[in-house]
Amino acid sequence: MTLETAPPRNVPALLTALHTRKDSATVLVSGSPGGVIHVRHGLVVAMETPAAPGVEVLLLKSRRIAEEDWTALRATGTDPAHLARELVARGLLGAAELEITGQAALFDAAFALALTRPEGWEAAEPRPHLDTGTAVPPARMVGETSRRIRLLANERGATARFARDRLAPAPAAGDPARLARLSSRHRAVLTTADGRRTPRDIAFTLGRGLFAVMLDLRDLLALGFLQPLAATASDRPSTAPRTPPHTSAAAPRPSATPLPRRKR
After folding, report:
1. How far apart are CA 167 and CA 107, in angstroms?
2. pTM
3. Inside any domain, residue 41
């Protein structure tokens, strides 16, 4: 059942209306990639989008949770709404760490969604989701998203285009002396940037937030370790493998606006 009949001008306006009324809802954002925003009593408590790694990816790829433990927990048929509670109850994760991970995933999803133009949005009845204990006012989420976009927009063109760029190693990536001066985090990103992966692919491969990966890619570009490849005629979503290569050696451009007005 849809809660909103007269759609607000954009998603932030819808979230603000829900916050004012202290409503609970699931906001469905359609488009490519689209996403789902969970709101409880007017506060944003979770967000999911194919454009950015979610809580599960962040926990498993970072090896904070063993895959066998996660699989065993899911096999019990635990409802998503109670899965987080079970993680803490079984001692697999602390409550504070889970909340921090959930908030990081939420802000990253909001940033990723703001880089694309949605086709539509609506508020529907609340749906089950992984409850990490996060609860953020819409104004704070929108402010943090704008800050991230501005931070990247000062560098190499449009943030939205940068998020779709495929980056390849530059000649400097073959210099052992220069590579030795990079942090392990930057080296991991460089190794994963193989000319086929976009920043989004790299984020999923490494189990890190899209925004954080884009910051590291920007650094590597500035240092001359990476070079952007020419854009292809077809702007198809990347299908590059997200499994890190076993060989070491090699991987920003950034102003998108917050979610735009909806066309009637």
Report:
1. 24
2. 0.81
3. yes
